[in-house]
Write a structure and sequence with these properties.
This protein is of the alpha+beta class and 298 residues long. It has 3 domains: 139 residues, no CATH class; 39 residues; 81 residues, no CATH class. The protein contains 10 helices and 16 strands. The strands form 5 sheets. Strands 1, 2, 5, 6, 7, 8 and 11 form a 7-stranded mixed beta sheet that branches. Strands 12-15-16 form a 3-stranded antiparallel beta sheet, covered by helices on one side. Helix 6 packs antiparallel against helix 7 and helix 8 packs antiparallel against helix 9. The protein is globular.
Length: 298
C-alpha cells in the first residue's frame, strides 16, 4: 500500500496503490460509491484523474486539492474537515503529514480545535497560520500505539479502582512508561552548554532589571520579557504583542502578550510592575480575594 502526491498543472494529485488489486476500488467508484483511503481521504468518481505516465499502472489517481501561487489548498470534502487547510508550495507533501498512528487523520484532529482556515508554512505570520517546523513538532507529539494502549488502561482503571483496587497497577504502568520514554530524550553536551549560556544570560539580565526596577518602565519590561519568553517556556512557538480581542462586555482588550503553543492552545500573559495592585483591597466573598477588574475582564 502506497500513497504519493504530485502536482499536475494547478491540481494536487494523490496516487494510491492498494496492497490488493485495484479492481474493487474501480467497481465502487463506477457504482457511485465513495472510497475511504486510510480513514483520512474520502474520494469519489469526480476526483479521478488519469496518470500522465500511464493510464494502465497499478495506482488510482485522485485530485484532492488546488495549487495556487503560494499555497496548495486541500479540498475539505476530501479530508472531511469544516475548514480548508493550506500547505505552502515549498513543502514536500507526504502521507505522514496527513495520517498518524492507527490511521488517525491529523487534519481532522486540528479541525476540531480551530474556527478558521489553517495555513502551514510559507508567510505564516501574514496568513495567521503556523510555521512548518511547528507542524512537524505537532506530528511528533501524536501518541504511538503503546502509549495509547497504556493511557486507555490508565483512564479506565482510574474510574473503577475504587471498587477494584487491583486496577491501581495500571496507573503505575502508565507512569513508568512515560518516565522511561522521557529518559530516552537526552540533549547532547553541546546543546546543554548552549542552553546553559542562554539561561545564564537571561537570568543576569533579569537580576539587573530587578535591582534597577524603579528606573525601568513597564514598556521596557514587556520588551525584555518578549525577548526571552520563548527560551524560558520552550513549549510556545509564538510570542506576540498587541493582539486585540473583543471582550464579553463589547470592548476591545489588548493583553501584553499572546502565547501560542505547538498544540495550538493560547495563553495570555500580562506584565505589571511590583507596585501595581493585583487583587481587590476588600474580601468580596467568604474571605476570598479576586483579581482587580483589569485582569478579570480579559
Amino acid at each position: 500500500m502506497a500513497i504519493d502526491f504530485e502536482v499536475n498543472g494547478d491540481e494536487l494529485i494523490l496516487s494510491y496503490s492498494p496492497s490488493m488489486d485495484i479492481e474493487w476500488i474501480n467497481k465502487k467508484l463506477t457504482d457511485g460509491d465513495e472510497v475511504c483511503i486510510r480513514h483520512t481521504f474520502f474520494v469519489n468518481a469526480s476526483h479521478i484523474r488519469t496518470s500522465d505516465e500511464s493510464p494502465y499502472d497499478d495506482a488510482v489517481h485522485f485530485c484532492i486539492g488546488t495549487v495556487g501561487t503560494e499555497y496548495t489548498r486541500i479540498d475539505p470534502e476530501v479530508v472531511a474537515t469544516k475548514h480548508p487547510f493550506f500547505f505552502a508550495n515549498s513543502i514536500s507533501l507526504k502521507y505522514e503529514l496527513f495520517i498518524a498512528y492507527r490511521n488517525i487523520s491529523i487534519l481532522r484532529k486540528i479541525d476540531a480545535l480551530i474556527d478558521k482556515d489553517f495555513y502551514i508554512g510559507g508567510d505564516w505570520q501574514r496568513t495567521g497560520g503556523i510555521p512548518f517546523e511547528a507542524f512537524q513538532t505537532l506530528i511528533k507529539t501524536f501518541p504511538k500505539t503503546a502509549e495509547l494502549d497504556r493511557y486507555a488502561n490508565f483512564r479506565i482503571a482510574s474510574c473503577i479502582k475504587e471498587f477494584l483496587p487491583e486496577c491501581d497497577k495500571y496507573e503505575v504502568i502508565y507512569n513508568q512508561f512515560i518516565d522511561k520514554r522521557s529518559g530516552r530524550i537526552q540533549a547532547s553536551k553541546s546543546n546543554l552548554e548552549i542552553e546553559l549560556a542562554q539561561f545564564s544570560a537571561a537570568l543576569d539580565e533579569l537580576k539587573w532589571m530587578l535591582l534597577n526596577e524603579k528606573g525601568i518602565t513597564e514598556k521596557v519590561w514587556q520588551s525584555k520579557v518578549q525577548e526571552i519568553i520563548l527560551l524560558l517556556y520552550p513549549k510556545y512557538i509564538l510570542c506576540t504583542q498587541e493582539v486585540t480581542f473583543t471582550g464579553v462586555d463589547g470592548y476591545d482588550k489588548r493583553p501584553d502578550f499572546v502565547l501560542v503553543d505547538a498544540n495550538g492552545f493560547i495563553d495570555i500573559l500580562e506584565i505589571k510592575k511590583s507596585d501595581i495592585q493585583l487583587l481587590t483591597k476588600q474580601a468580596s466573598y467568604r474571605n476570598n480575594y479576586v483579581p482587580v477588574r483589569v485582569f478579570s475582564v480579559k
